[in-house]
Amino acid sequence: MWQLLKRKYLLPLAGQIPGNGSHIFEQTRIFDIDGDSPYILKSVKRNKVTADKVIIASHYPIYNKAGLYTARIYPDRSYVVAIKAEEPYPGGMYINAETPSRSLRFQPFEGGKLILVGGENHKTGQGGDTTQHYQKLVDFARDTFTVEEILYRWSTHDCMTVDSLPYAGYFTADKQNLFVATGYQKWGMTNSMAASMVMA
Fold this sequence. Notes:
Layout: H1 2-16, E1 30-35, E2 39-43, E3 48-51, E4 54-56, E5 73-85, E6 94-95, E7 102-109, E8 112-123, H2 130-144, E9 147-161, E10 167-170, E11 178-182, H3 188-199
């Protein structure tokens, strides 16, 4: 469901890109970059894309020859359960400041509102049994709402930086036409816009 929201957000942006030397190449997974302005981007299907400027905004950077981003970024996992409740959801989005973190938001669903309860984050691979994290969110939901049904559950990985600040700008100081945008600390929809404005 979250993927559908992101798609709804991204499709209008994608509609603005083609033209003036810009293109969208779907189904073209890049695994390496050669050259230096122009850059040659190599895809797994052995296709090549040539570009004067490159922004690596691939969640986890696919290119690491100079920036050592693999040593400065780690994946963090968090969880969501989607519930139907008897009482109406008050609207809005909420997140607490305490630990463990809990967030609430809603999604229109079958004439009503599906409540999304999120939290339980941990460094990927270090959280133990994942079912316990879902259960804690369910327990929180039942303490907060009169839960009728638990319809969905999923988890996500977000890139975190060692200093908690997103990386947005030159890939390295000497690469004036190669940029990176990642490490949004779970705030990708807003921080990606801020990163694009910084790089523009």
